[in-house]
Amino acid sequence: LQLPISGVFLLIYAMTVGNLGMMTLIFTDSRLHSPMYFFLSVLPFLDICYSSVVTPKLLVNFLASDKSISFEGCVIQLTFFVVHVTAESFLLASMAYDCFMAVCQPLHYGSVMTKGTCLQLVAASYVFGGANSAIQTGNVFALPFCGPNQVTHYFCDIPPLLHLACANTGTAGVILYIFSALVTLLPATIILTSYSLILAAIGRMHSAAGREKALSTCASHFLAIAIFYGTVVFTYVQPHGSTNDTNGQVVSVFYTIIIPMLNPFIYSLRNKEVKDA
């Protein structure tokens, strides 16, 4: 099955990289020069980055007899993966806040969501990503690795690497749990609070057309968010060892390969401005 599966994943990855077209469209069309579309142009960039950390190596492993990765390559893969996944988590929170301001505080939207604010939110997402990556990568590779060297996964992820360490990984597991919870549950709380207030504001709208437009936009956003956070929490924010290797790999496919392809489609699926552009 490796050959047909590699063909499917190659097609998915090509569509993910093809989301560069969404970025180009947003940058070149003046109708899309607004905070919402600025975030929507950063999202596919993050998706392409962290998918590219994992998928090309996976495709090579499907076709090559040598499926090894060097220790240094493993460190680099994990470092950049955690940076971009964490940054995406906080970017989704920024997008939810932007949606909240647009729906609930329309008179203050222009003065609050300035270009500078948007750039600061994206920069903060990367700062959180870099900090979490430094902590998580250091936490894993500070451990001694002296025994089995077969990673039961399709990329260098933290839980399967902890299984290979020749030391007690109790403390490392607690650090993984705490910081994974912080970078997923904190943005998720911001997102849920924002969308709760948005839904309350939509319920007070008198215009049926405005209510329908806001609901369709929020529903598509919430779908992407639910898939992303659901799979990440399932992998990292549950008791250590409660996920078997096969389930971990299957779930990881969603947030490393499937979601990066789907995100731009989901966020622009019901968006008339993007369709017109």
Automatic annotation (TrEMBL):
Start and end residues of each G-protein coupled receptors family 1 profile domain: 18-267
Could you list the residue ranges that cross the membrane?
Answer: 6-27, 36-55, 75-97, 174-202, 214-237, 249-269
Q: Where does it live in the cell?
A: Cell membrane
Q: Which Gene3D superfamilies match?
A: Rhodopsin 7-helix transmembrane proteins
Domain of life of the organism encoding this protein: Eukaryota
Q: Report the membrane topology from the UniProt record.
A: Multi-pass membrane protein
Its main localization is membrane
Q: Which Pfam families match?
A: 7tm_4
Record's keyword terms, sorted: Cell membrane, G-protein coupled receptor, Membrane, Olfaction, Receptor, Sensory transduction, Transducer, Transmembrane, Transmembrane helix
Report the InterPro entries cross-referenced here.
GPCR_Rhodpsn_7TM (IPR017452), Olfact_rcpt (IPR000725)
A cellular component annotation (GO) from this entry: plasma membrane
Q: Which CDD domains does the UniProt record give?
A: 7tmA_OR5-like (cd15230)
- GO terms of molecular function: G protein-coupled receptor activity; olfactory receptor activity
* The protein's name in its UniProt record: G-protein coupled receptors family 1 profile domain-containing protein
Q: Which organism is it from?
A: Loxodonta africana
